[in-house]
Predict the 3D structure of the following.
Amino acid sequence: MTAATAENSAPVSVVTALYLRTKTLHVEAERTGIIRDLLRGEASREGYVLLLRNLLPAYQAMERGLERHRGSPGLGALARYRLDRAPAIQSDLIAICGKGWSRDIPLLAVGEVYAGRIAEAAEGAGARLIAHAYTRYLGDLSGGLILQRLLARSLGLHPSELSFYDFPRFSDLEALKAGYRKALDRAGALVRDGDAVVEEGAVAFTLNIELSWAVQSATLKGSAAAAAAE
């Protein structure tokens, strides 16, 4: 996780290193599966709620992991932001689907794999959680408001069904994003193996791409089955 110049060699911030490592994957993610459909206003409610349901275990694993490392110098600062998205996802699922959402909406195999990878990253010193916090939380803060407006327009979702994109504890989201970015960099500066964190970022994006494809595929199959049954 270093960048060489003609004059010297200086460490690169973990956020910059993660951005450079994953920027191609980021573009691919936006052009893939259910995420592509959401950004184009072409997704169905069924596809959106299936995505939420399969992101939930990943956020739960990440938030449990950060809480476990609350006492550490680096991860503790990230944990104290309490950006917890899992309760918001659960609230949205109840608002959209009712209290039986966990029975009615399947957890896909790749959703389990994604959550398992994050749980694994939380083991030991938990340094690789930095990559998952970068991938999910900075992504939520960067594009969340845009996606919230798109979903309200394309799917007719109400504010109570879109709390995943709200951060009510914070009045200035740009300041929150800047502060969280600095906290990620401070945590990254304390890591012994920064390259492992950066490579974990690539793994996180790859899993998100796989999940996006799986959700789109399952939604299309469900729609085809429903049409055949009519």
